[in-house]
Amino acid sequence: MSAAAFTGSEVTDIDAAKVRGAGSNVHFDKVVVAYGAHVVLHPLTLDIAPGEILAMIGPSGSGKTTALRAVAGFVRPRSGRIRIGATDVTDLPPYERGLGMVVQNYALFPHMRVEDNVAFGLRAQGADKALIGERVKDALATVGMATFARRYPRELSGGQQQRVAIARALAVRPRVLLLDEPLSALDAQIRRNMVEEIARLHRSLPGLTILYVTHDQTEALTLADKIAIMRDGRVCSHGPTTELYRRPPNRFTAEFLGRANLLPVTVAEAAGPKGFATARHGDAVLTSAGRDEKAGDKSLLCIRPQHLSLTADSEHTNRIVGTLREVHWQGELTHLVLDVDGTPVRVSATKLPMALPEPGTKVPLFFAPADTSLLPEDAGV
Amino acid sequence: MLVWSRSGRLIIWVIFALIFGVLFLAPLAVILLSSLADQWNGVLPNGLTTEHYADVAKGAAWNAVKASLVTGFAASALALVSGTWAALSLRLQGPALKRLLGPLFFIPSAVPSVSVGLGLLVAFSHPPLLLNGTIAIVMIAHFVLISAFTFGNVSAGLARLSPDFEQVASSLGARPAYRLWHVTLPLLAPYLVAAFGLSFALSMGELGATVMVYPPGWVTLPVSIFSLTDRGDIFAGAALTMILVAATLVLLLGLERITARATGS
């Protein structure tokens, strides 16, 4: 099977199977991590399927890095078990777990050339010279860094260093690749490129299981098959990326993943056979994708800023009115902040009317029922 | 830049030159001139000669150089190994033990060297630890006095070392010994070289403890210098001092080059 390598000046077709690790599932079984009396990871039960990218996202201190470090073996769970494939790795030292790890600051060994960095894991495991040479070549080709093999890390840019770090992790054919905020140290432009390149890499290595820890929702949304959102040491939601984005199960998920607007509503009619419910917000009667709400339930209507429009059309049949408070122009996007009956509502628009209303004026907003969802008001988690 | 004005910078430079010149260069210059002085009755020597160098070279000077170099190397190497070991071990301990043991390692540096010499003399003068009158007791004295500096340097290096390097190495399958040899120690190399250099320089100049414990036939440079000046042979003592300074300087410059290569600077 041939796969295109990372983009770059030296795109190479390589045999993807050569660098593909035998992907394994990862299973957290009621894993608790605590430092003294301070519990940083409450019982965590979670599965990562073979070949899946699971992104763990959450604010600082939410426990996402602790969960990754528990898989890596750098944090010992107080209770619970961690399995990788069929192996219970809870009591195994890090060097016996068969993982690859990439960290935020790359951690390339500065005294070694690129090729020696990539060969490090194989040499440490006692692989023979011919195999090391072949694997190093393949891994560097995969990330488009073959021509940089003789350089030292200090002679590379941040993005290049991160590619080498990924190649180093891939060279040992890990059962699971752990990525701990791997792009946080890069500037915005390079980060965007690297996200696309990691996505491309995973397409060429579909068997590789990846646990990706980040605080950046764009990285998570772009890369992950599934997302686990962490808060205060607990998983507050977990599911397929698109599902979690389109139908967030609770307020925290809705606000953390894509900064959704949450409009308090009262359910007027439960969802019918087509899955749409009717809800009231003040005088406005709105149609929204529903779950199992009953008439009279207090609920939150979730609508993303980019799904709100200042102009009506056949799809955008829901209408609310807000008072324009702020306008922020950001080139390709314009962000508006409106006050809708005391609830701040954000709008992100690529196209705006020629004459933008002045702050303080009443502005109608339109949105499509299919772009909304209802979530229970008390599911704040 | 702390001082922006040109005149301000000039004043700072003059103050620096005065302090450096008076406190650091002047004593060295006097020793250098003394080592070359034919006679010295006025402000400056009456004439210059290399005779004192020739005299000390004919005497026991080279034995003293050899004794100092061997003692410095051996004690510094031993201090480097044990200081590194101690720093690496202490890093793995809990905060309470670290707080307790960390300062303990520095105690030898706070004890007067004469007291260290006396302590060793008393401790090692009876069987089964009868080391009095041996070269080993000189090495031990130097080791005791310099080990704190080695420990301090390596600990400072370890504190600056990101745990990511070792953790990534472990995750890639490197066992602790392989990781130590291929990752930790190379990354600590600049600190190890600096620690060795400092230990060596301290050992080369050590007198207080050495004068208490040195056996006949193992007279270090500082002890020789002390003997010469004590006998009133100031010029020969100065010549020997310059040899000590030169030997130490050559070694430290060599170590600096090694450090520069290791760090790629």
Task: Provide a descriptive summary of the structure in words.
The complex is a heterodimer of chains A (381) and B (265). Chain A has helices at residues 16-19, 64-72, 114-124, 129-142, 158-171, 188-204, 217-223, 241-246, 251-256, and strands spanning 2-4, 13-15, 26-35, 38-48, 53-57, 79-84, 87-88, 99-102, 176-180, 209-214, 226-231, 234-240, 261-269, 276-281, 284-289, 298-303, 318-330, 333-340, 343-349, 362-367, 372-376. By secondary structure, chain A is α+β, with helices and mostly antiparallel strands. Chain A has a 6-stranded mixed sheet with strand order 8-9-10-5-11-12, sandwiched between helices. Chain A has a 5-stranded antiparallel sheet with strand order 15-14-13-16-21. A 4-stranded antiparallel sheet of chain A has the order 4-3-6-7, with helices on one face. In chain A, a hairpin with a 2-residue loop joins strand 18 and strand 19. In chain A, helix 3 crosses helix 4, helix 3 (114-124) runs parallel beside helix 5 and helix 4 packs across helix 5 (158-171). Chain B has 265 residues and is mainly α. In chain B, 77% of the residues lie in helices and 2% in strands. Chain B has 11 helices and 2 strands. Chain B has helices at residues 6-36, 51-58, 61-91, 95-110, 113-123, 135-160, 163-171, 176-204, 210-213, 221-230, 234-263; strands spanning 125-126, 129-130. Chain B has a two-stranded antiparallel sheet. In chain B, strand 1 and strand 2 (129-130) form a beta hairpin. In chain B, helix 8 (176-204) packs antiparallel against helix 11. The two termini of chain B are 23 Å apart. The chains are: A alpha+beta (381), B mainly alpha (265). The interface between A and B is medium-sized, with 31 and 21 residues.
